[in-house]
Structure formats: C-alpha cells, structure tokens
Amino acid sequence: MNAQSSLLAKSRFKWWEILLWIALLASPALLPRQALIINEIAIVALFAISLDLILGYTGIVSLGHAAFFGLGGYAAGLLAKHINPDPLVGLAMGVAVSTVAGAVMSLTIMRGNDLTRLMVTLGFALILFELANKLDWLTGGADGLQGVMMGPLLGRFEFDLYGQTSAFYSLTVLLLCFLLLRRVIHSPYGATLMAIRDNRLRAMAIGIPVANRLTSIYTLAAAVGGAAGVLLTQTTGFASLDLFEIHRSADVLLMLVIGGTGWLYGGIFGAIVFKVMQDVLSNITPQYWTFWLGLFLVVLVMVGRERLNNPRSWFKGKGAQA
Hints:
single chain, ABC transporter involved in vitamin B12 uptake, BtuC
C-alpha cells in the first residue's frame, strides 16, 4: 500500500465514529435538560482540538492558547453589540481576528526550546489580558462586556435560556471544524507536521519547509481556538477577562491529558470527561471538587500512562484512527 492509499484509508470514518457523532448531534434533543452542559462540552472540545493540532501533531507546547480564545470571544461580542448581531457574521469575524493574531504570534515560536515557547505564549496571553483590562471603555474591563444580544441563528432560531439552540449550534461548528482538521491531518501536509514533531532536523534535511509548516498550522490552530471563544460569547451573551485567564489554557491541557494527544478524538473525550466530572463533583463537594479531579488525573497518569501515550490502543483491533 503506497503512502497516498494509506492516508486515504486512515481518513475513512469508522462505524463507531459515525455512531458517536449521531449521538452527539442528537444529545440536545434527547437530553434537553442537559443542553447547557452539552453546549459547554462542545465549546471546550473545540478548544481542546485546536490545541492538540499544535501540541499533539506538531510538538509545539503552549500555555497561552487562551489568547486566541479570548480574542475570538471579544471580537464577536463587540461586533454583536455595536454593529451586527448575526451569529454567523460574528463567528466569521472572531475567526478572522484570531487567525491574524495567530499568524503574528507564529513568528515568535520558530526559535528556542519548549520552555521558551511556554513563556512566550503565556506572555502573549497575559499582555492581551492586561490590554482587555485597561481598555475598559471598549471591553468593559473587569466588569466584562455586557449587553451582548445575539440575533436569531439563520434568522429563525432564537437563543433561549434552555440552551438547545446554543447546543445544536456549537455541536455543528464542532463537527465542521473536526471534519476540516481531520482532512488536514490525513493529508501529505499532515504527514509533514508529524515528521516535524518527531524530528525537526531530519524534516529539514529531507526538504520539508519547517518554518512554513509551523506558521500555517499555528495560524490554523489559532483560528479554531478563536471559533471556540466566539461560541462561548455568543451562547452566554457575555465576554469577560476570564476568557484570557491562564486556567483556560491549563484546563484544556488537562483535557488532552485525559483524552490523549495526537488524536483528534482525545480533545472530545477529554472534554466530556472533564466537564462531566467537574459538574458532578462540584454538586457533591462544592469546596473540594478540584481535589477529587486532581486525584483522578494523578491516578490516570500513574496507572494509564501507556494508554495515555497511545490512545489508539483503546480501539485496538477496530482500525480506529481519528
């Protein structure tokens, strides 16, 4: 089997993937009382997938991915408040702003080691956080951007307090982005990304344009991360400094620890487990839920390290491939 045929085979959907997406898309209708948390899961899953694109597939570590999440959220909120409340226009605007920011930021990750990139990406997020705080005439500062009223989706579906429209909207965007990223990963371009991740010097030696690849994939990841921020602002009607907080970047890293990196479904499964555990544990022990979540992560890493490093082994024998 040649390389092209191998990539084509990997890109085909498996039966369990089809069932999973049917269940996800039907979940707001089947579980209407849980529509709000389903919406949250879809948003953080999209955010986790965007980080996995650079961490799991390219080997770029980042502690400031929330910068793009926040930029997308504020761009969509400001557009809805002052110019146009259409959700799809806001989504396009938020993605455009975060894409430009990602392209600029990508120039800073070409040199240095992983620790350098951690500090640079974290610093970028902190700068945006402080700008959003100081420009209170525009962003609302510490009080947040209030009064964001979204128009009906496609001119027909109103965003309500029950969250069903929000959940269907977020799940649809998640699916579309997933299909795009899946196509990117299972292409010759995606193969070069993994070559760079495994050995950058060897990739350069065989003629792969490493700088070009790193710039383009970082920009794409920023765009998808911005889309997640847009969804949060649009479905909650509010944007605050919390969008830029370091805990956003930390939480999404934890989701990838749970679900596994270098596997697009890792972000989805990690988001589901993380948000469900957060919701259940915070209801049982509101003061100590973080302790139990931390204990779960310690056990997961200590006991399940092999599966964590090779999440495809969970479906061994079924030809699973994200």
